[in-house]
Amino acid sequence: MMPAKRRAPDSPVAERPTPAKRPSIQDPRHSGSHKFQGCSSRTVYRQINKLGEGTFGLVYKAEDTRTGAMVAMKQFTVTNEKEGFPITALREIKYLKQLKHKNVIPLLEMAVDKPIRGKDGHKRGVIMMVTPYMHYDLSGLLENPQVNLTEPQIKCFMQQLLRGIKYLHHNNILHRDIKAANLLINNKGILQIADFGLARRFDEPAPTPGSGGGVAMRQYTGNVVTRWYRAPELCLGERNYTAAVDIWGVGCVFAEMKRGRPILTGNSDTHQIELIFQLCGSPNERTMPGWERLPDARLVKSFGNHPRTLEAQFNVLGSSGVSLLSELLKLDPRTRVNAMDALDHEYFKVEPLPSKPGDLPEFEDSHELDRRKKGGQRALPPAPAGGTVGVGPSADWNGDIPAPYMNGNGRHVRPPPPPPSGRRPAWQKDGERGETRDVRAPPPEGGVGGHGHRQGKGGKDKTDTYIPSYRSDGGRPPRDDRQPRDDRDWRDGHERRRDERGSLGGGGGRGPGGGGGGDRNRDRDREREREREREQRDRERAREWRR
C-alpha cells in the first residue's frame, strides 16, 4: 500500500467561504447617496433650533455637516434606569428600519452622544433618531390662519395618507396613533406618516379589496390612539380590534382638514364616545352589531338616543365627500372601509380632481413649539403613555360639573368630579369648612397659578387638578405614611391623646366612636389608595406593551 502523497507547499489551501455582506439600506430621499450605517456621532450634526418636546425628550432641527441636508433629530432621554430604554422608542426604531414608502417617514440613522449627568448625579446616555426635516405637520398647517386648504389640496393629502396606510396594513402593521399632528409635510407637498411609538404587527390577514375592516383574531392593549381620534370600539373597551382603528383616525383627519380644527374633542373617554354618537347616531344592532357586549357599553345607555348628524354637518364636502366620510367613520369596524377601497372611491374621480404634491403652495414652517409660543389654543391630548388617555383628571366625566377652565399650558381641563360618596370637593363648600385651610376655587381663565396651585416657571400652573394648600398660620399637617386608619391600632401617640380628649366631652377622637376630625385623613387614605391603583394599572399596561 503506497503512502499518501504530501501536498506541495505551494498548492492552494481550501478556505472557508467568506460570508456575504449584508446589503446596506439605501435611502434615495436623503442626499442621493446616504446609506443607513447604524449609528454615528451627534457631533456630525449642527443643531439649529428646537422644534418640540414631549415625554420622550426633545426634537431639534439640525444640519448634516457631511451632506448639508436638513434633518430632524428626536432625542430620547432615559430617565428610569430600571426600565431602561423607552419601549415606544424601540418600537419606532424597529418599524422605521423595516418600512420604505414615499408616505412613511424614513429613519436615516441613529446618533449617539456622550452621557449627560442628571440632577440625581447619574449619567445617562443620549440617543437620537435622525429623520428628514419636514417643514410642518398637518395640525400646525390647519391652525395657521393664513392657510385655507382647497378641495384639490385636501384630496391630494387624503390620497397620500391613504397610500401610506395601505402600505402599513399590507405589511400587517397597525399605527395606532393616526392624527393630524403625526402627519408631516415638507415644502414640496409630500405627506409622510410619523411617530410609530404605538405601532405593532397584527396577526390577522392583511385587508383586501371589498373585505372592509376584517375580523379580529386576538386581543391587543386597549390603551392606544389619542382620544380625539379614537374609534368607538376602543372607547367602549374593545381589545379584539383590527386595522379599522387606523381608518377611523383617517376619517377624523379628513373632516378636520375641511373644518380647520378637530371635530371630536372629548374631555374624557366617556365624553368622547358621546360626541361620536352625537355625530354618527346612537348604536344599534344594525349600525354596530354586538356593541352591547363590549366592556363599557353600560356607559352608553345613559346617553339617550342621538340622531345621526354627520351628513348635515359636512354637506360642504358634496355628495361624494360625505359618502367617503361616512365610510371612514362607520361605527361597525367590520364594515368600515379599508384603505384600498377608500383610494378607489368616487370622491377622488370627480371634479375638482386632486392636485399634484408639487403644485401645493409653500407655507410658513410650523411645529409643536411654534404653536405653544402663540398660546391661547386648546392643546391636543397626549398619546397614551402608560396613563389615562387625554387631558381630563377623570375618565368617568358625566357632564354634571362646571365648564372647563384653562391651566398654564393653555390646555382645557375640568375640575375633579365629586367622590363616589356624593360629597362635593372642598373648594365648593366654603361655608362648611373651618378657617385653618385655604379652600378657594380653581384658577380663573388665563392660567396664572396662585396660592394653592402647584407652580412652574413664570407662575404657570403645571397640573390638571386643583391642589389645596394650607395657610401659613395653620401650618401643613405632617404626612401620615402609616397604614390606613382602619388597619392599625389607633391607640398610639397623639391618637391616644386625641381620643382621651374626645372621651372627656370634646368628641374629637378618631377611634371607634370618635367624632369628626378624621375627614382629612380619610381623604388622604382614599387618595393613597387611588395612587396605588394607578400604579398597578401602569405596570399592567407596560407588561402588555412588551408583549
From TrEMBL:
<keyword id="KW-0067">ATP-binding</keyword>
<dbReference type="InterPro" id="IPR017441">
    <property type="entry name" value="Protein_kinase_ATP_BS"/>
</dbReference>
<dbReference type="InterPro" id="IPR011009">
    <property type="entry name" value="Kinase-like_dom_sf"/>
</dbReference>
<dbReference type="GO" id="GO:0005524">
    <property type="term" value="F:ATP binding"/>
</dbReference>
<keyword id="KW-0418">Kinase</keyword>
<comment type="similarity">
    <text>Belongs to the protein kinase superfamily. CMGC Ser/Thr protein kinase family. CDC2/CDKX subfamily.</text>
</comment>
<feature type="compositionally biased region" description="Gly residues">
    <location>
        <begin position="503"/>
        <end position="518"/>
    </location>
</feature>
<feature type="region of interest" description="Disordered">
    <location>
        <begin position="350"/>
        <end position="547"/>
    </location>
</feature>
<protein>
    <submittedName>
        <fullName>Serine/threonine protein kinase, CMGC, CDC2/CDK subfamily</fullName>
    </submittedName>
</protein>
<dbReference type="InterPro" id="IPR050108">
    <property type="entry name" value="CDK"/>
</dbReference>
<keyword id="KW-0808">Transferase</keyword>
<feature type="compositionally biased region" description="Basic and acidic residues">
    <location>
        <begin position="427"/>
        <end position="440"/>
    </location>
</feature>
<feature type="binding site">
    <location>
        <position position="74"/>
    </location>
    <ligand>
        <name>ATP</name>
    </ligand>
</feature>
<keyword id="KW-0539">Nucleus</keyword>
<feature type="compositionally biased region" description="Basic and acidic residues">
    <location>
        <begin position="473"/>
        <end position="502"/>
    </location>
</feature>
<dbReference type="GO" id="GO:0005634">
    <property type="term" value="C:nucleus"/>
</dbReference>
<dbReference type="InterPro" id="IPR008271">
    <property type="entry name" value="Ser/Thr_kinase_AS"/>
</dbReference>
<feature type="compositionally biased region" description="Basic and acidic residues">
    <location>
        <begin position="519"/>
        <end position="547"/>
    </location>
</feature>
<keyword id="KW-0723">Serine/threonine-protein kinase</keyword>
<feature type="domain" description="Protein kinase">
    <location>
        <begin position="45"/>
        <end position="348"/>
    </location>
</feature>
<dbReference type="GO" id="GO:0004693">
    <property type="term" value="F:cyclin-dependent protein serine/threonine kinase activity"/>
</dbReference>
<dbReference type="InterPro" id="IPR000719">
    <property type="entry name" value="Prot_kinase_dom"/>
</dbReference>
<feature type="region of interest" description="Disordered">
    <location>
        <begin position="1"/>
        <end position="39"/>
    </location>
</feature>
<keyword id="KW-0547">Nucleotide-binding</keyword>
<dbReference type="Pfam" id="PF00069">
    <property type="entry name" value="Pkinase"/>
</dbReference>
